[in-house]
Specification:
Blueprint: H1 19-29, E1 36-37, E2 57-58, E3 64-65, H2 69-72, E4 81-82, E5 95-104, E6 113-118, H3 121-132, E7 139-147, E8 154-156, E9 159-170, E10 176-193, E11 199-205, H4 216-219, H5 225-228, H6 251-254, H7 260-276, H8 286-295, H9 302-315, H10 330-339, H11 346-349, H12 359-363, H13 367-381, H14 394-404, H15 409-416, H16 421-434, E12 435-440, E13 446-449, E14 462-466, E15 472-478, E16 484-491, E17 500-507, E18 513-520, E19 529-534, E20 538-542
Parallel strand pairs: 1-3, 5-7
Antiparallel strand pairs: 2-3, 4-9, 5-11, 6-10, 7-8, 7-9, 9-10, 10-11, 12-13, 12-20, 14-15, 15-19, 16-17, 17-18, 18-19
Biased composition (Polar residues): 227-237
Biased composition (Basic and acidic residues): 295-307
GO molecular function, one term: metal ion binding
Length: 543
Protein backbone atom coordinates (compact mmCIF):
# COMPACT_ATOMS: atom_id res chain seq x y z
CA UNK A 1 0.00 0.00 0.00
CA UNK A 2 2.97 2.30 -0.56
CA UNK A 3 2.17 5.30 -2.73
CA UNK A 4 4.96 7.38 -4.18
CA UNK A 5 2.88 9.16 -6.82
CA UNK A 6 2.25 12.37 -4.92
CA UNK A 7 0.35 15.15 -6.62
CA UNK A 8 -0.23 18.84 -6.04
CA UNK A 9 -3.51 19.88 -4.41
CA UNK A 10 -5.84 22.56 -5.71
CA UNK A 11 -5.04 26.18 -4.78
CA UNK A 12 -6.34 27.05 -1.33
CA UNK A 13 -9.27 29.45 -1.17
CA UNK A 14 -10.13 31.84 1.66
CA UNK A 15 -13.90 32.23 1.38
CA UNK A 16 -15.03 29.52 3.81
CA UNK A 17 -12.42 29.67 6.53
CA UNK A 18 -12.23 31.56 9.82
CA UNK A 19 -10.02 34.57 10.40
CA UNK A 20 -7.62 32.60 12.62
CA UNK A 21 -7.23 29.88 9.97
CA UNK A 22 -6.74 32.58 7.30
CA UNK A 23 -3.80 34.02 9.24
CA UNK A 24 -2.26 30.58 9.72
CA UNK A 25 -2.62 29.75 6.03
CA UNK A 26 -0.99 33.06 5.14
CA UNK A 27 1.96 32.03 7.30
CA UNK A 28 2.21 28.79 5.36
CA UNK A 29 2.17 30.60 2.04
CA UNK A 30 4.85 33.00 3.25
CA UNK A 31 7.24 30.21 4.20
CA UNK A 32 8.89 30.44 0.81
CA UNK A 33 9.97 33.98 1.69
CA UNK A 34 10.55 33.80 5.42
CA UNK A 35 13.25 32.05 7.42
CA UNK A 36 12.12 29.60 10.05
CA UNK A 37 13.83 28.50 13.20
CA UNK A 38 12.99 25.35 15.13
CA UNK A 39 14.57 24.09 18.30
CA UNK A 40 15.75 20.50 17.93
CA UNK A 41 14.90 18.06 20.69
CA UNK A 42 17.88 16.70 22.55
CA UNK A 43 18.28 13.58 24.66
CA UNK A 44 16.03 12.64 27.58
CA UNK A 45 18.55 13.76 30.17
CA UNK A 46 18.27 17.45 29.24
CA UNK A 47 15.89 19.86 30.94
CA UNK A 48 12.18 19.80 30.02
CA UNK A 49 11.89 23.51 29.22
CA UNK A 50 14.55 23.44 26.53
CA UNK A 51 13.29 20.45 24.57
CA UNK A 52 10.67 19.88 21.91
CA UNK A 53 9.44 23.46 22.29
CA UNK A 54 8.62 25.57 19.28
CA UNK A 55 7.37 29.15 19.64
CA UNK A 56 5.08 30.92 17.18
CA UNK A 57 5.63 34.56 16.19
CA UNK A 58 8.37 36.85 15.03
CA UNK A 59 11.80 37.11 16.63
CA UNK A 60 13.68 40.34 17.34
CA UNK A 61 15.51 40.00 14.03
CA UNK A 62 12.23 39.65 12.12
CA UNK A 63 12.55 35.91 11.58
CA UNK A 64 9.57 33.63 12.05
CA UNK A 65 9.78 30.71 14.40
CA UNK A 66 8.03 27.51 13.39
CA UNK A 67 4.45 27.14 14.64
CA UNK A 68 3.88 23.44 15.20
CA UNK A 69 0.09 23.95 15.20
CA UNK A 70 0.30 24.54 11.44
CA UNK A 71 0.91 20.82 10.99
CA UNK A 72 -2.38 19.95 12.70
CA UNK A 73 -4.35 22.07 10.18
CA UNK A 74 -3.63 19.52 7.42
CA UNK A 75 -3.62 22.39 4.93
CA UNK A 76 -2.33 20.04 2.20
CA UNK A 77 -5.93 18.80 1.88
CA UNK A 78 -6.99 22.10 0.38
CA UNK A 79 -10.30 23.83 1.04
CA UNK A 80 -12.61 21.89 3.38
CA UNK A 81 -15.66 23.33 5.09
CA UNK A 82 -16.87 22.82 8.63
CA UNK A 83 -19.89 20.52 8.86
CA UNK A 84 -21.07 22.29 12.04
CA UNK A 85 -22.04 18.91 13.41
CA UNK A 86 -21.29 17.93 16.97
CA UNK A 87 -22.98 14.62 17.72
CA UNK A 88 -23.91 13.89 21.31
CA UNK A 89 -22.19 10.82 22.69
CA UNK A 90 -24.08 7.59 22.16
CA UNK A 91 -25.17 5.58 25.17
CA UNK A 92 -22.88 2.76 26.16
CA UNK A 93 -24.34 -0.54 25.01
CA UNK A 94 -26.17 1.02 22.06
CA UNK A 95 -26.24 -1.05 18.87
CA UNK A 96 -26.40 0.72 15.50
CA UNK A 97 -25.39 0.39 11.87
CA UNK A 98 -22.50 2.52 10.59
CA UNK A 99 -20.58 2.74 7.30
CA UNK A 100 -17.10 1.33 7.93
CA UNK A 101 -13.81 2.86 6.86
CA UNK A 102 -10.91 0.44 7.25
CA UNK A 103 -7.26 1.55 7.32
CA UNK A 104 -4.01 -0.38 7.27
CA UNK A 105 -1.48 0.52 9.93
CA UNK A 106 -3.69 3.18 11.55
CA UNK A 107 -5.36 3.03 14.97
CA UNK A 108 -7.89 5.75 15.79
CA UNK A 109 -8.60 6.64 19.42
CA UNK A 110 -11.34 8.81 20.93
CA UNK A 111 -10.41 12.52 20.76
CA UNK A 112 -7.79 11.92 18.04
CA UNK A 113 -7.83 13.65 14.63
CA UNK A 114 -8.00 11.65 11.40
CA UNK A 115 -7.43 13.29 7.98
CA UNK A 116 -8.76 11.35 4.99
CA UNK A 117 -8.28 11.71 1.26
CA UNK A 118 -11.11 9.61 -0.18
CA UNK A 119 -10.54 8.47 -3.77
CA UNK A 120 -11.72 4.84 -3.86
CA UNK A 121 -15.40 4.52 -5.00
CA UNK A 122 -16.35 2.21 -2.13
CA UNK A 123 -14.97 4.66 0.43
CA UNK A 124 -16.65 7.60 -1.33
CA UNK A 125 -19.96 5.71 -0.97
CA UNK A 126 -19.11 5.15 2.70
CA UNK A 127 -18.63 8.87 3.37
CA UNK A 128 -21.68 9.91 1.36
CA UNK A 129 -23.82 7.44 3.29
CA UNK A 130 -22.54 8.88 6.58
CA UNK A 131 -23.32 12.44 5.47
CA UNK A 132 -26.96 11.59 4.79
CA UNK A 133 -27.90 8.88 7.28
CA UNK A 134 -30.65 9.65 9.79
CA UNK A 135 -29.05 8.01 12.83
CA UNK A 136 -25.58 9.17 13.90
CA UNK A 137 -25.26 11.59 11.00
CA UNK A 138 -21.73 12.47 9.85
CA UNK A 139 -20.42 9.41 11.72
CA UNK A 140 -18.34 6.53 10.33
CA UNK A 141 -16.79 3.53 12.02
CA UNK A 142 -13.00 3.32 11.69
CA UNK A 143 -11.28 -0.05 12.10
CA UNK A 144 -7.72 -1.21 11.58
CA UNK A 145 -7.15 -3.81 8.88
CA UNK A 146 -4.19 -6.17 9.10
CA UNK A 147 -2.79 -9.32 7.58
CA UNK A 148 -3.00 -12.40 9.80
CA UNK A 149 0.59 -13.65 10.29
CA UNK A 150 -0.57 -17.26 10.42
CA UNK A 151 -3.05 -17.53 7.55
CA UNK A 152 -1.97 -14.51 5.52
CA UNK A 153 -5.59 -13.42 5.21
CA UNK A 154 -6.64 -9.78 5.59
CA UNK A 155 -8.76 -9.23 8.69
CA UNK A 156 -10.54 -6.40 10.43
CA UNK A 157 -9.87 -5.70 14.09
CA UNK A 158 -12.75 -6.48 16.42
CA UNK A 159 -12.47 -3.12 18.22
CA UNK A 160 -12.73 0.21 16.40
CA UNK A 161 -13.68 3.83 17.03
CA UNK A 162 -16.53 5.97 15.77
CA UNK A 163 -15.38 9.11 13.98
CA UNK A 164 -17.41 12.25 13.42
CA UNK A 165 -16.76 14.14 10.17
CA UNK A 166 -15.91 17.67 11.27
CA UNK A 167 -14.70 19.09 7.93
CA UNK A 168 -15.73 18.07 4.42
CA UNK A 169 -14.77 19.07 0.90
CA UNK A 170 -15.66 17.48 -2.44
CA UNK A 171 -13.43 18.05 -5.44
CA UNK A 172 -14.36 18.26 -9.12
CA UNK A 173 -13.01 14.78 -9.84
CA UNK A 174 -15.43 13.30 -7.29
CA UNK A 175 -12.83 12.65 -4.59
CA UNK A 176 -13.45 13.85 -1.05
CA UNK A 177 -11.18 15.40 1.58
CA UNK A 178 -12.34 15.22 5.19
CA UNK A 179 -11.04 15.69 8.71
CA UNK A 180 -12.73 13.47 11.30
CA UNK A 181 -12.44 13.20 15.07
CA UNK A 182 -12.54 10.01 17.12
CA UNK A 183 -15.53 9.70 19.43
CA UNK A 184 -16.24 6.34 21.10
CA UNK A 185 -14.90 2.80 21.01
CA UNK A 186 -17.10 0.08 19.58
CA UNK A 187 -17.11 -3.68 19.15
CA UNK A 188 -17.77 -4.86 15.61
CA UNK A 189 -20.54 -7.48 15.67
CA UNK A 190 -21.00 -8.20 11.94
CA UNK A 191 -20.37 -6.54 8.57
CA UNK A 192 -21.67 -6.57 4.99
CA UNK A 193 -21.51 -4.61 1.72
CA UNK A 194 -24.63 -2.65 0.74
CA UNK A 195 -25.98 -2.20 -2.79
CA UNK A 196 -23.90 0.94 -3.32
CA UNK A 197 -20.69 -0.89 -2.47
CA UNK A 198 -20.21 0.69 0.94
CA UNK A 199 -18.93 -1.57 3.71
CA UNK A 200 -21.36 -1.41 6.63
CA UNK A 201 -21.23 -2.93 10.07
CA UNK A 202 -23.36 -3.50 13.13
CA UNK A 203 -21.45 -1.99 16.02
CA UNK A 204 -21.90 -2.19 19.77
CA UNK A 205 -20.85 1.01 21.59
CA UNK A 206 -18.56 0.10 24.48
CA UNK A 207 -19.58 1.39 27.89
CA UNK A 208 -16.50 3.10 29.30
CA UNK A 209 -15.85 2.71 33.00
CA UNK A 210 -15.78 5.49 35.56
CA UNK A 211 -12.17 6.23 36.58
CA UNK A 212 -11.37 4.50 39.87
CA UNK A 213 -10.48 6.52 42.94
CA UNK A 214 -9.28 5.16 46.29
CA UNK A 215 -12.34 5.05 48.57
CA UNK A 216 -12.06 7.38 51.53
CA UNK A 217 -13.01 4.66 53.99
CA UNK A 218 -9.97 2.69 52.83
CA UNK A 219 -7.39 5.24 53.93
CA UNK A 220 -9.37 8.00 55.62
CA UNK A 221 -10.51 8.36 59.20
CA UNK A 222 -14.08 7.25 58.63
CA UNK A 223 -16.38 4.88 60.51
CA UNK A 224 -14.27 4.58 63.72
CA UNK A 225 -14.84 1.57 65.87
CA UNK A 226 -16.48 3.64 68.60
CA UNK A 227 -19.46 4.10 66.26
CA UNK A 228 -19.97 0.38 65.80
CA UNK A 229 -19.62 -0.21 69.55
CA UNK A 230 -22.01 2.55 70.63
CA UNK A 231 -24.88 0.16 71.26
CA UNK A 232 -22.87 -2.63 72.83
CA UNK A 233 -20.57 -0.91 75.33
CA UNK A 234 -20.54 2.35 77.29
CA UNK A 235 -18.80 5.27 75.61
CA UNK A 236 -15.96 6.60 77.72
CA UNK A 237 -13.94 9.60 76.66
CA UNK A 238 -10.19 9.21 76.94
CA UNK A 239 -7.66 11.90 76.31
CA UNK A 240 -4.81 11.26 73.86
CA UNK A 241 -2.45 13.67 75.58
CA UNK A 242 0.65 11.99 76.89
CA UNK A 243 0.68 14.11 80.03
CA UNK A 244 -2.61 12.78 81.34
CA UNK A 245 -1.68 9.67 83.31
CA UNK A 246 -5.24 8.85 84.25
CA UNK A 247 -6.24 8.37 80.61
CA UNK A 248 -3.14 6.58 79.37
CA UNK A 249 -3.52 2.86 78.92
CA UNK A 250 -0.71 0.70 80.26
CA UNK A 251 0.69 -2.11 78.18
CA UNK A 252 -0.77 -4.71 80.50
CA UNK A 253 -4.30 -3.33 80.58
CA UNK A 254 -4.60 -2.19 76.96
CA UNK A 255 -5.80 -5.49 75.48
CA UNK A 256 -8.12 -6.12 78.41
CA UNK A 257 -10.05 -2.97 77.51
CA UNK A 258 -10.73 -4.20 73.99
CA UNK A 259 -13.70 -6.16 72.80
CA UNK A 260 -13.08 -9.45 71.03
CA UNK A 261 -13.54 -7.77 67.62
CA UNK A 262 -11.26 -4.87 68.51
CA UNK A 263 -8.60 -7.20 69.85
CA UNK A 264 -8.49 -9.14 66.57
CA UNK A 265 -8.28 -5.92 64.57
CA UNK A 266 -5.57 -4.64 66.90
CA UNK A 267 -3.50 -7.79 66.35
CA UNK A 268 -4.06 -7.48 62.62
CA UNK A 269 -2.94 -3.84 62.59
CA UNK A 270 0.26 -4.55 64.47
CA UNK A 271 1.26 -7.63 62.49
CA UNK A 272 0.34 -5.82 59.26
CA UNK A 273 2.59 -2.99 60.40
CA UNK A 274 5.36 -5.53 60.91
CA UNK A 275 4.86 -6.77 57.32
CA UNK A 276 4.72 -3.24 55.97
CA UNK A 277 8.33 -2.66 56.96
CA UNK A 278 9.20 -4.81 53.98
CA UNK A 279 7.63 -2.30 51.63
CA UNK A 280 10.17 0.46 52.05
CA UNK A 281 11.24 3.07 49.52
CA UNK A 282 13.97 0.78 48.20
CA UNK A 283 11.27 -1.22 46.45
CA UNK A 284 10.61 0.97 43.45
CA UNK A 285 7.80 -0.70 41.56
CA UNK A 286 4.28 -1.38 42.74
CA UNK A 287 4.42 -4.84 41.21
CA UNK A 288 7.47 -5.75 43.32
CA UNK A 289 5.69 -4.51 46.41
CA UNK A 290 2.66 -6.56 45.49
CA UNK A 291 4.76 -9.69 45.08
CA UNK A 292 6.40 -9.17 48.49
CA UNK A 293 2.99 -8.59 50.03
CA UNK A 294 1.52 -11.78 48.67
CA UNK A 295 4.55 -13.76 49.76
CA UNK A 296 3.48 -12.94 53.33
CA UNK A 297 0.05 -14.51 52.80
CA UNK A 298 -0.83 -18.12 53.66
CA UNK A 299 -3.62 -20.39 52.55
CA UNK A 300 -5.69 -19.29 55.57
CA UNK A 301 -8.16 -16.45 55.60
CA UNK A 302 -6.69 -12.91 55.47
CA UNK A 303 -7.61 -12.07 59.06
CA UNK A 304 -6.38 -15.40 60.33
CA UNK A 305 -3.18 -14.96 58.38
CA UNK A 306 -2.41 -11.74 60.22
CA UNK A 307 -3.49 -12.89 63.67
CA UNK A 308 -1.83 -16.30 63.55
CA UNK A 309 1.71 -15.06 64.37
CA UNK A 310 0.33 -13.23 67.38
CA UNK A 311 -1.61 -16.26 68.54
CA UNK A 312 1.47 -18.42 68.18
CA UNK A 313 3.46 -15.94 70.23
CA UNK A 314 0.79 -15.77 72.92
CA UNK A 315 0.67 -19.55 73.21
CA UNK A 316 4.40 -19.91 73.78
CA UNK A 317 5.78 -20.37 77.27
CA UNK A 318 7.80 -17.60 78.78
CA UNK A 319 11.10 -17.99 80.58
CA UNK A 320 9.36 -18.86 83.86
CA UNK A 321 7.55 -21.80 82.29
CA UNK A 322 4.22 -20.05 82.52
CA UNK A 323 2.03 -19.76 79.49
CA UNK A 324 2.27 -16.46 77.72
CA UNK A 325 -1.49 -15.99 77.62
CA UNK A 326 -2.38 -12.51 78.75
CA UNK A 327 1.12 -11.21 77.94
CA UNK A 328 2.34 -9.80 74.66
CA UNK A 329 5.25 -11.56 72.87
CA UNK A 330 8.47 -9.66 72.23
CA UNK A 331 7.64 -8.77 68.60
CA UNK A 332 4.20 -7.59 69.66
CA UNK A 333 5.63 -5.50 72.49
CA UNK A 334 8.29 -4.10 70.17
CA UNK A 335 5.72 -2.89 67.69
CA UNK A 336 3.48 -1.63 70.47
CA UNK A 337 6.29 0.59 71.67
CA UNK A 338 7.15 1.68 68.12
CA UNK A 339 3.58 2.60 67.41
CA UNK A 340 3.09 4.16 70.84
CA UNK A 341 0.23 1.90 71.81
CA UNK A 342 1.23 1.96 75.46
CA UNK A 343 1.02 5.75 75.49
CA UNK A 344 -2.31 6.18 73.71
CA UNK A 345 -5.80 5.73 74.96
CA UNK A 346 -8.31 3.13 73.90
CA UNK A 347 -10.29 5.92 72.19
CA UNK A 348 -7.32 6.67 69.98
CA UNK A 349 -7.14 3.07 68.83
CA UNK A 350 -10.83 2.99 67.99
CA UNK A 351 -10.26 5.80 65.48
CA UNK A 352 -7.85 3.67 63.39
CA UNK A 353 -9.07 3.11 59.80
CA UNK A 354 -10.15 -0.47 59.20
CA UNK A 355 -8.91 -0.98 55.61
CA UNK A 356 -7.50 -4.41 54.84
CA UNK A 357 -5.03 -3.36 52.13
CA UNK A 358 -2.14 -0.92 52.62
CA UNK A 359 -2.63 2.45 50.94
CA UNK A 360 -0.03 1.75 48.22
CA UNK A 361 -2.15 -1.18 46.99
CA UNK A 362 -5.08 1.15 46.41
CA UNK A 363 -2.75 3.60 44.64
CA UNK A 364 -1.86 0.90 42.12
CA UNK A 365 -5.45 1.02 40.84
CA UNK A 366 -6.37 4.65 41.57
CA UNK A 367 -6.94 6.18 38.12
CA UNK A 368 -6.04 9.67 39.32
CA UNK A 369 -2.79 8.56 40.91
CA UNK A 370 -1.91 6.66 37.74
CA UNK A 371 -2.85 9.66 35.59
CA UNK A 372 -0.40 11.83 37.51
CA UNK A 373 2.32 9.21 37.15
CA UNK A 374 1.63 8.77 33.41
CA UNK A 375 1.71 12.53 32.77
CA UNK A 376 4.99 12.86 34.65
CA UNK A 377 6.52 9.96 32.76
CA UNK A 378 5.33 11.44 29.44
CA UNK A 379 7.01 14.70 30.42
CA UNK A 380 10.28 12.87 31.11
CA UNK A 381 10.29 10.73 27.96
CA UNK A 382 8.40 12.67 25.29
CA UNK A 383 8.31 16.13 26.91
CA UNK A 384 5.71 17.68 24.59
CA UNK A 385 2.85 18.38 24.63
CA UNK A 386 2.34 18.94 28.36
CA UNK A 387 -0.47 16.73 29.67
CA UNK A 388 -0.93 18.21 33.14
CA UNK A 389 -4.32 19.67 32.20
CA UNK A 390 -5.69 16.15 31.66
CA UNK A 391 -4.59 14.63 34.97
CA UNK A 392 -8.04 15.16 36.49
CA UNK A 393 -9.59 13.44 33.45
CA UNK A 394 -7.83 10.04 33.51
CA UNK A 395 -10.01 8.51 30.78
CA UNK A 396 -9.21 11.29 28.30
CA UNK A 397 -5.54 11.24 29.31
CA UNK A 398 -5.30 7.51 28.64
CA UNK A 399 -6.71 7.97 25.13
CA UNK A 400 -4.51 11.01 24.50
CA UNK A 401 -1.32 9.13 25.38
CA UNK A 402 -2.39 6.03 23.44
CA UNK A 403 -3.05 8.07 20.27
CA UNK A 404 0.33 9.84 20.39
CA UNK A 405 2.82 7.44 21.94
CA UNK A 406 5.46 6.65 19.28
CA UNK A 407 5.14 2.87 19.13
CA UNK A 408 4.00 0.37 16.51
CA UNK A 409 0.40 0.17 15.34
CA UNK A 410 0.15 -3.36 16.76
CA UNK A 411 0.99 -2.15 20.27
CA UNK A 412 -1.43 0.75 19.94
CA UNK A 413 -4.25 -1.55 18.82
CA UNK A 414 -3.65 -3.51 22.01
CA UNK A 415 -4.11 -0.28 23.98
CA UNK A 416 -7.39 0.40 22.17
CA UNK A 417 -8.71 -3.02 23.09
CA UNK A 418 -8.04 -2.61 26.82
CA UNK A 419 -11.27 -2.16 28.78
CA UNK A 420 -10.79 0.09 31.77
CA UNK A 421 -9.01 3.40 32.28
CA UNK A 422 -6.89 2.05 35.12
CA UNK A 423 -5.54 -0.89 33.14
CA UNK A 424 -4.89 1.25 30.06
CA UNK A 425 -2.92 3.78 32.13
CA UNK A 426 -0.89 1.04 33.79
CA UNK A 427 0.03 -0.39 30.38
CA UNK A 428 0.95 3.06 29.05
CA UNK A 429 3.22 3.72 32.03
CA UNK A 430 4.89 0.39 31.40
CA UNK A 431 5.42 1.26 27.73
CA UNK A 432 6.78 4.72 28.50
CA UNK A 433 9.23 3.20 30.95
CA UNK A 434 10.32 0.31 28.76
CA UNK A 435 10.20 1.10 25.04
CA UNK A 436 13.69 1.95 23.88
CA UNK A 437 14.45 1.01 20.26
CA UNK A 438 12.73 0.69 16.90
CA UNK A 439 13.52 -1.96 14.33
CA UNK A 440 12.46 -2.60 10.77
CA UNK A 441 9.39 -4.80 10.84
CA UNK A 442 10.59 -6.80 7.83
CA UNK A 443 14.26 -7.53 8.60
CA UNK A 444 14.61 -6.47 12.27
CA UNK A 445 17.39 -3.98 11.50
CA UNK A 446 17.89 -1.41 14.28
CA UNK A 447 16.81 1.96 12.88
CA UNK A 448 16.23 4.36 15.79
CA UNK A 449 16.31 4.88 19.55
CA UNK A 450 13.93 6.61 21.93
CA UNK A 451 16.34 9.49 22.38
CA UNK A 452 16.00 10.27 18.65
CA UNK A 453 12.40 11.43 19.00
CA UNK A 454 11.55 14.89 17.69
CA UNK A 455 8.28 16.79 18.12
CA UNK A 456 7.36 18.64 14.92
CA UNK A 457 3.62 18.86 15.63
CA UNK A 458 1.67 20.24 18.57
CA UNK A 459 0.03 16.82 18.81
CA UNK A 460 3.33 15.14 19.68
CA UNK A 461 5.94 12.93 17.99
CA UNK A 462 3.31 10.79 16.22
CA UNK A 463 0.52 11.92 13.91
CA UNK A 464 -1.74 10.71 11.09
CA UNK A 465 -1.40 12.14 7.56
CA UNK A 466 -3.13 11.38 4.24
CA UNK A 467 -1.36 11.27 0.88
CA UNK A 468 -2.90 12.01 -2.55
CA UNK A 469 -3.42 8.31 -3.25
CA UNK A 470 -5.85 8.00 -0.36
CA UNK A 471 -3.52 6.16 2.02
CA UNK A 472 -3.24 7.28 5.63
CA UNK A 473 0.10 6.95 7.42
CA UNK A 474 0.86 7.34 11.10
CA UNK A 475 4.29 8.97 11.17
CA UNK A 476 6.86 9.07 13.98
CA UNK A 477 9.23 12.05 13.70
CA UNK A 478 12.90 11.53 14.58
CA UNK A 479 16.10 13.56 14.54
CA UNK A 480 18.20 10.69 13.17
CA UNK A 481 18.00 7.07 12.05
CA UNK A 482 20.37 4.20 11.25
CA UNK A 483 20.21 1.80 8.34
CA UNK A 484 17.91 3.94 6.18
CA UNK A 485 18.75 5.42 2.77
CA UNK A 486 17.10 8.28 0.89
CA UNK A 487 15.92 7.62 -2.67
CA UNK A 488 14.80 10.21 -5.18
CA UNK A 489 15.02 14.00 -5.20
CA UNK A 490 13.22 16.17 -2.61
CA UNK A 491 9.67 17.21 -3.51
CA UNK A 492 8.01 20.35 -2.14
CA UNK A 493 4.45 19.65 -3.25
CA UNK A 494 1.93 18.14 -0.83
CA UNK A 495 4.29 18.27 2.12
CA UNK A 496 2.76 17.44 5.48
CA UNK A 497 5.25 19.81 7.13
CA UNK A 498 5.13 23.31 5.59
CA UNK A 499 8.61 24.55 4.77
CA UNK A 500 10.06 21.07 4.22
CA UNK A 501 10.48 18.93 1.11
CA UNK A 502 10.11 15.17 1.28
CA UNK A 503 12.03 12.21 -0.15
CA UNK A 504 11.25 8.49 0.13
CA UNK A 505 13.31 6.61 2.75
CA UNK A 506 14.02 2.87 2.50
CA UNK A 507 15.66 0.24 4.69
CA UNK A 508 19.13 -0.47 3.31
CA UNK A 509 18.90 -4.14 4.28
CA UNK A 510 15.52 -5.21 2.86
CA UNK A 511 14.42 -2.28 0.71
CA UNK A 512 11.13 -1.74 2.54
CA UNK A 513 9.78 1.80 2.48
CA UNK A 514 10.21 3.01 6.05
CA UNK A 515 8.85 6.50 5.55
CA UNK A 516 10.26 9.84 4.40
CA UNK A 517 13.17 12.18 4.84
CA UNK A 518 12.17 15.84 5.24
CA UNK A 519 14.71 18.52 4.31
CA UNK A 520 14.39 22.23 4.91
CA UNK A 521 13.68 24.48 1.94
CA UNK A 522 15.61 27.36 3.54
CA UNK A 523 19.25 27.27 4.52
CA UNK A 524 18.82 28.78 7.99
CA UNK A 525 15.89 26.65 9.03
CA UNK A 526 16.35 24.53 12.14
CA UNK A 527 16.43 21.59 12.11
CA UNK A 528 17.78 21.31 8.60
CA UNK A 529 16.28 17.83 8.26
CA UNK A 530 14.38 15.12 10.12
CA UNK A 531 12.86 11.71 9.47
CA UNK A 532 9.25 10.56 9.43
CA UNK A 533 8.87 6.80 9.89
CA UNK A 534 5.67 4.82 9.39
CA UNK A 535 4.53 3.26 12.66
CA UNK A 536 3.19 0.29 10.71
CA UNK A 537 6.69 -0.48 9.44
CA UNK A 538 8.46 -0.62 12.82
CA UNK A 539 8.48 -2.98 15.77
CA UNK A 540 9.27 -1.94 19.33
CA UNK A 541 12.10 -3.22 21.47
CA UNK A 542 11.84 -2.85 25.23
CA UNK A 543 14.58 -2.15 27.72
Amino acid sequence: MNNRSWIETNPMGNDSISESERLQIEQIMELEFEELEVEEVEDEESSDDEHRRVSAGASASGEYTYDTSLVTLHSYLGVIEDTHSRLAFLDGGAVLTLPLYYLEGVVLFPEATLPLRVVIPNFIACVERAMGQADARYTIGVVRVYKDPNSGRVKLSAIGTTAEIRQYGKLEDGSINIVARGQQRFRLKRRWVDVEGSLCGEVHIIQEDVPLRTPREAVGKLAPLRNSQANSMPSTHHSCEEGNDSDVMSEGSFENELSATERRLHHYALVSSNSSEVYDESISSDDERSERFYECQSERSPLDNHTRPVRLGLNKHNDDGNPGVGKMPFSYMQHSKKAGWGKHSIASFRDVPRAFWPSWVYSMYDSYVLARKAADRWKQVVKSPNLDSLVMKPDLLSFHIASRIPISDIARQELLEIDGTTYRLRKEIELLESFDKMRCKTCQTLIAKRSNMLVMSSDGPLGAFANPGGYVHEVITLTRTDGIAVTGPPVKEYSWFPGYAWSVAECIMCGSQMGWYFSATKRKMRPQAFWGLRSSQVVDEKL
